[in-house]
Amino acid sequence: MDWIIRGGRIVDGSGLPAFEGDVALKDGKVVRLGGRIEAEGAQVFDATGCIVAPGFIDPHTHFDVQLLWDGQARPALEHGVTTIVPGNCSLSLAPLKAGDRQRVVGMFQQIEEMPDAAFDGAFEWRWESFDGYLAALKESLSINVAPLVGHSVIRLWVMGAAATERAATAEELAAMQDLLAQCLEAGAVGLSTSFVDVDENLMPVPSRYAHFEELDALAAVLGRYGRMLQVVPEFYATDITLARVDQLAELSLRYGIPTTFSPLFDSAATPENVPRVMARVAEQMARGAQVWPQVQTRPIDISFTFEVASLLFAGLPKWYRTMRMGAEEKIAALSDPAWVAQLLAEAEPGGNGARWAAVQVRGGVSDASLLGQTLGALAEARGSSPAQVMIDLSLQHNLEASFIAASLGHNDSERVGALLADGNVHVGASDAGAHIQSFATYGDTGYLLGHFVRDQGALSLEAAIKKITADTARIWGLPGRGQLAPGFAGDVAIFDAAEIDRCAEEASFDMPEEGMRYVRASKGMVGVFVNGALSWSKASGYADAPVGQIATQLPGAASA
Amino acid sequence: MSKAPFIEAAEIAPGHDGAAELVLFVRYPGAGRQTVTLDADAAEVLFEHTQTGDVNALQGVPWHHLKDVLQQRPDRGAAGGNS
C-alpha cells in the first residue's frame, strides 16, 4: 500500500449510505476500502471525523490556458475537484494552426477575460494538433483532464476565414469529420458548440455559422466513439431552448450519444422558465435520449461600474440617466451637490440606504483594503450613506471603481435545491476559469455540500456526492473514475461535513505578470488525492505532484 | 383591450455572466405571454426608441418598438453575451 486514509466515513459515490472504514491506495488506484486496513510502510492520512469521497468532477470549465502554466488548476483542486472538463462552449486551444492563434486568443479573452499576459510568454505555444496540445498539458499536469474539442476551432482549421462567413461545403464537412475523429482518438471527451457566444468584436463565434447538417455530421462522428456533445443554447430565450432540447434529443437518439447543455438557471423574474425546460427534458429522457441540463449551484451576482450604464440602475430613472452620460458629463453631474442630492433621494428614499448596504467594493480602487468591504460598512465608518460612498469611490477612481451586488439571481434556495436534486439535472456549469475578472467560479461543490446538503437538506450527502462524481463520470464516459471502489482511480476528497463550504470571494494576483482574478479558497476540505498522490492538504497546501491523467482513458493508461 | 402585442411588464434580472439584463413580458392579443431578455446595449436601443430611461415606463409600450430593436440587433438583440 502507498496510502491508507484512516478512520473516515466513506461516501463512495454510488449513492448508497455512508459507512465507516479505511481506504487503501496503491499504484494510483483504490485497492481496498472498509474496515481497518493495516499495511507496513504505507503512509497514513488521518481522516477521523471526516467524509472520504471520490474526487469531484467539474464538467464545465475553461481551464484550457491556465493548465499550461498551472497544472493544478488552482484553486479548483483544493475544493476537492480532481477531474475537469475544459474546452467548453465551442472553444479549445487545439486543433489550431499557428496562423489562427491570435483569432482564438481574442475569443478566449472575450469569454474568459484572460489578460494578454496569459498568452504572451506564460507558455510556449508549440502545438497545432489536439494530441500536441495534450502532450504539452501532460508535462506538468496535476489534475485529471477530460478535454472537449471546440467546434469553432475545428471550423477555423478547415475553413479558415470562411468559418465566420458561410456554411460548410460537403468537402469541408468531410474534413471536419476527419479532424474531429483525430481529436477523439487523441483523447477528446467530445465536441462543444455554441449558439450564443461572441468574439472580441462581438461577432458570432465560428460554430454559430454552422447549419444543422454540419452539427448532424459531427454528431455522427461522436456516435462512432460514444462521445459527448456539449451545447450552449440560447439560454435567454426559453422557447428556443426548448427547441434545442428537442434537437439534442434527436441527435442523441440518432447516434446514441450523450448531450448536455448549459447554463440553466432560476430567475425570480421568470420562475416558470426552468420548470418548462425540465418538463421537456423529462419528456425526452423518457424517450431514451440523453439531454443533460447543467445547473450551477452558486447564486448569480451582478457586477457593475459607473463607466457604463448597468441595467441595475434602469429602475432608477435619475441614476440611469446619469449612467448613460458621457464620462465628462457624468463626472460633472456626480460632482454637483444638487444633482447628487436628487440621486440620493431616489436611491435611498427617506434616507434608507439598505438597498445598497450589502453591495461590495470589488476592484478598480487604489486602496486594496477597500476590496470586499460593503458600502454599508464603509458608510458607517465614514458617517455617510451607501449610495454616497459608491459615488465618492467612483469619482475618486475616475469611474473605474467596480462593485458587486451579490446573490441577486438563482438564489431561491427552495427552488434551486429542488432543481439540483432532480434526477435529470447534471450538477455543473461552474464555468471555472472563465469570467475571471468579474466573479469567482470556484467552490461550487463546497456550496452544494454546505448550503444545499448541510444547511438546507435539499439533498442527502450521498446523493449530492453521487451527482458530482459517479453520475458525472457515467454521463461523460470517464472510465474508472467517480467512485471509491477497488480498481478505480485513487481520486479522493476528504472533508469535514460540518465545515465544508466555499470561502468569501477575494481578489488574487496570481495570473501571469501578477494579473488579477477573483478566487475563493476552500473551507472544510482537509485533503485531496489525485491518482493516489496527496496533491493538496489543509496542513501542507499544494504538492508538486504531476500525476494528472487524461481522464477519457483508463486510470494509469495515460500517465503524465 | 389592445389589438397589438405590448410590453406588459419589465424587470431587471441578473444574467448568467454577471451583468444585469432587462426581462420584458410581452402580452399578445390572444392572451399569450412571452418573455424577451435584452442585454444592456439592446436595452439602450429600446430606451432610445421609446424615449424613456426608466424600466417602469416600458409598461404598455407597443411590441413594434421591441421588434425594431431585435431587427436592428439580430445577433445580440437578446441577452447573449457569453457563456
Would you kindly provide a brief summary of this structure?
The complex is a heterodimer of chains A (560) and B (83). Chain A is an alpha/beta fold and 560 residues long.
What do these coordinates show?
The complex is a heterodimer of chains A (560) and B (83). Helix content of chain A is 32%, strand content 21%. Chain A has helices spanning 101-112, 130-138, 151-159, 170-186, 212-225, 238-255, 273-286, 317-323, 327-334, 337-347, 354-357, 375-382, 386-396, 413-421, 444-455, 461-467, 470-476; strands at residues 3-10, 19-26, 29-33, 43-46, 51-54, 56-58, 81-84, 144-145, 148-150, 190-194, 228-232, 259-261, 291-295, 300-305, 360-363, 402-409, 426-427, 492-495, 501-511, 515-523, 525-530, 533-537, 541-542. In chain A, strands 1, 2, 3, 4, 5, 18, 21, 22 and 23 form a nine-stranded mixed β-sheet that branches. Chain A has a six-stranded parallel β-sheet with strand order 9-10-11-12-13-17, sandwiched between helices. In chain A, strands 6-7-8 form a three-stranded parallel β-sheet, with no helix packed on it. In chain A, strand 1 and strand 2 (19-26) form a beta hairpin. The radius of gyration of chain A is 24 Å and the shape is globular. In chain B, helix 1 (40-50) crosses helix 2. Chain B has a three-stranded antiparallel β-sheet. Helix content of chain B is 25%, strand content 28%. Chain B has helices spanning 40-50, 63-72; strands at residues 6-14, 20-27, 33-38. With 83 residues, chain B is of the alpha+beta class. Chain A binds chain B through residues 88-89, 110-111, 194, 196-198, 202-204, 232, 234-239, 262-263, 265, 267-270, 273, 300-304, 308-312, 314-315, 317, 320-321, 324, 408-410, 431, 435, 438-439, and chain B through 11-23, 34-37, 40, 43-44, 47, 53-57, 75-76, 78-83.
